[in-house]
Design brief:
- The protein has 667 residues and is of the alpha+beta class.
- Among the domains are: 228 residues, Immunoglobulin-like (Sandwich); 89 residues, Golgi alpha-mannosidase II (Immunoglobulin-like, Sandwich).
- Helices cover 22% and strands 29% of the residues.
- An 8-stranded antiparallel β-sheet has the order 6-7-8-9-17-14-13-11. A 7-stranded parallel β-sheet has the order 18-19-22-26-27-28-29.
- Strand 7 and strand 8 form a beta hairpin.
- Helix 6 crosses helix 8 and helix 11 runs parallel beside helix 12.
- The longest helix has 17 residues.
- The protein is globular.
- The N and C termini lie far apart (59 Å).
- The relative contact order is 0.10.
- Belongs to the glycosyl hydrolase 31 family.
Length: 667
């Protein structure tokens, strides 16, 4: 039994690691009540908690695997824990007879120098130590830095500035450099607080079902365990390996532009036209018409054009989200069947998405979920010929709607992305296309791994900024990858262009260099395509992009080996340096470079105006610079030239793919 009692408390130990330490004068558990204010504005949340009670449960009575907590001897038991598990996995189930409790705080011992990672997809800080991270799915914000003008303006105009912890994909799971993982099984609002030197504090706005601890001897084994726990993704479809997915939303002209892009030597696997459903124009920019079927006016003869592209090895991708515009054709069909979430009066709840209203399809109603999977995704998309799509807006469930399952929307809000992913996956499965059709999501939560084949990093600003630019997608890939999300990618060139912030040629080129070393290369025209440079607007940019697609395709044999590894072991394609160099503590906090599989180290240039770049090479290997063949001994920083087209990339000496990597010089 991992519970070791003492004269005034107990220790909970797993695999020799102290996970909980309770003493009457230093309790590990606090309970109480809170009254939260939660305001939602177009996917952004303003959340504040008024804590009514926070009581330390100082008295603990251990009976076998049960622990009964009360405030003091003789006081009523307020919370009980039951510990179960074996040598390396342990679960703590919670039970309470006190219905008034809606706040739990649990303290986990911390060590000096300990690092913690995870929390879903964290865009600003990969190593979470030293900060507090609320875990609530939302828009991530624009700029995400309160000291910047763009965040200030976004806050003032749309409450959309965000902060370092805002993310589309939170998950109450973290991994420690002590080689254990903690997961909270709950969908309630929660927070990880890593600011204290001697303990981490887990805060939950409900009594959780359980907390799980997983211990493994190595980081690789720990990540494998996370993948097994949360579900393993299907492999990438073979057609993806043909090159980049080109994102255009220019109506029928998209097909003509694609031909010009191909003629420039670009390797192309897909054409992604999110405007396949038509457009509406708002003050934010051109928005899609949220009625999920092909728009014949914008794309005449699209079904035939899709078939013609597929004959050439190019797939067509579209866009969908869980909402239906009131002025679309699907809205009355869903409303007549009672498939929408309702308001407090039982009427269809309408959500303002920025100058247009939508109904929210209620995925807690099995009939509504099945209707969306079959009627919308199955018939209108897969049967029409689409091979993939962006499955957007999983983070938008309003917290004041009424749902068919009767559960408070505040408790379903975090669960929504996973339900949305499941609807998409079931539609794909219904057509026998799992591993063939590919949808990608930015929103996520616990369990999304099992259903979503590909994450995308969301809507970064079109710049090099520290908290919302190019570099943030590396942190997103690394943090989510540790939790079993093997595949991650981003909008090449970024997405959000506001207040005069527009793309530069340099940004697109640097982003494309990184994209060539990710599982999927995909471009996006952004929210204001006409204001921003596109890959086919500038011959130098297009030539550079075409070359990077050839780099991507050149590495396909290696990428396929990584996909096979992901299928077998759940290891992510993009990995933190410490995953394979855990003896080198200098790698633990690096978040602007990554391993692309075990043998390639990629350090994208994420500052403007750079012609050379400095990065750290892990100790324990010799590293060969991909473009010069110069060999560097690991365990030190190196500076290499970084002209356009030659991003800082190194391969491990002795790799079985050395010949392939050496071939990069000749592309």
């Amino acid at each position: 039994m991992p519970i070791q009692t003492t004269s005034n408390g107990f220790d909970l130990v797993l695999d020799g690691k102290l996970l909980l330490r309770h003493r009457s004068d230093a309790p590990c558990l606090f309970v109480g009540q809170g009254d939260a204010r939660m305001d939602m504005y177009r996917g952004n949340f303003d959340i504040e908690d008024y804590v009514i009670e926070r009581t330390p449960l100082a008295h603990a009575v251990v009976s076998g695997s049960d622990i009964a907590f009360s405030a003091a001897p003789g006081q009523p038991v307020r919370l009980g824990l039951r510990v179960s598990g074996g040598d390396s996995d342990l679960a703590i189930a919670f039970r309470t007879e006190d219905a008034s409790l809606n706040r739990i705080w649990l303290r986990v011992p911390a060590e000096q120098g300990e690092h913690v990672w995870g929390g879903g997809e964290q865009m600003s800080y990969f190593d979470m130590r030293g900060r507090r991270f609320p875990l609530w799915t939302s828009e991530p914000g624009v700029g995400r830095d309160k000291t910047t003008e763009i965040t200030f303006k976004s806050d003032v105009t749309g409450k959309s500035g965000g902060d370092y912890w805002n993310t589309n994909y939170p998950q109450p799971t973290y991994l420690s450099s002590r080689r254990y993982a903690l997961h909270v099984e709950t969908t309630a609002y929660s927070a990880f607080d890593f600011r204290k030197d001697d303990f981490h504090e887990v805060e939950i706005w409900a009594v959780p079902e359980r907390i799980e601890f997983t211990s493994r001897p190595t980081f690789v084994a720990l990540v494998e365990a996370m993948s097994e726990r949360f579900g393993r993704q299907p492999p990438l479809p073979d057609w993806v390996y043909g090159g980049a997915i080109i994102g255009l939303k220019d109506g029928a002209n998209s097909l003509d532009r694609l031909e010009a892009i191909i003629a420039a030597g670009t390797k192309v696997s897909g054409l992604w036209c999110e405007d396949w459903v038509g457009l509406r124009h708002t003050s934010f920019g051109a928005r899609l018409f949220w009625d999920w079927k092909a728009n014949d006016d914008r794309y005449p003869g699209l079904r035939q054009r899709i078939a013609e592209l597929e004959d050439r090895g190019i797939r067509f991708l579209g866009y969908v989200n869980p909402y239906l515009a009131v002025d679309g054709s699907l809205f009355p069909e869903a409303e007549a069947a009672g498939y929408f979430a309702t308001d407090e009066n039982g009427n269809t709840a309408l959500v303002d998405f920025g100058e247009f209203d939508c109904g929210v399809v209620d995925f807690t109603n099995p009939d509504a979920a099945a209707w969306f999977a079959e009627r919308v995704i199955g018939q209108n998309m897969l049967d029409f010929g689409l091979s993939g799509w962006m499955a957007d807006f999983g983070e938008y469930l309003p917290i004041d709607v009424k749902l068919a399952n009767g559960v408070d929307a505040k408790l379903m809000h975090n669960a929504w992305p996973t339900l949305w992913a499941e609807v998409n996956a079931r539609a794909v499965e219904s057509r026998g296309k799992t591993g063939e059709a590919m949808f990608f999501m930015r929103a996520g939560f616990t369990g999304v791994q099992k259903h979503c084949p590909l994450l995308w990093g969301g809507d970064q600003s079109v710049d090099f900024t520290r908290h919302d630019g190019l570099v943030t997608v590396i942190s997103g890939a690394l943090s989510s990858g540790l939790l079993g999300n093997a595949y991650h990618h981003s909008d090449i060139g970024g997405y959000t262009s506001l207040f005069g912030n527009v793309r530069t040629a340099e940004l697109i080129m640097r982003w494309a260099e990184m994209g060539a070393f990710t599982p999927v290369m995909r471009t996006h025209e952004g929210n204001r395509p006409r204001d921003n440079l596109q890959i086919d607007h500038d011959p130098q940019v297009l030539a550079h992009f075409a070359r990077m697609t050839r780099v991507y395709v050149h590495l396909v044999p290696y990428l396929k080996s990584l996909v096979a590894e992901a299928s077998a072991q759940g290891l992510p394609v993009q990995r933190p340096l410490f995953l394979h160099f855990e003896h080198d503590a200098r790698t633990y906090a690096i978040q602007d470079a990554y391993l692309y599989g075990p043998d390639l180290l990629v350090a994208p240039v994420w500052h403007a105006g750079k012609s050379e770049w400095t990065t750290y090479l892990p100790e324990g290997a010799d590293w060969i610079h991909a473009w010069s063949s110069e060999t560097f001994v690991g365990g030190r920083e190196v500076t290499v030239p970084a002209p356009f087209g030659q991003p800082p990339v190194f391969y491990r000496a002795g790799s079985e793919f050395s010949e392939l990597f050496a071939g990069l010089r000749h592309l």
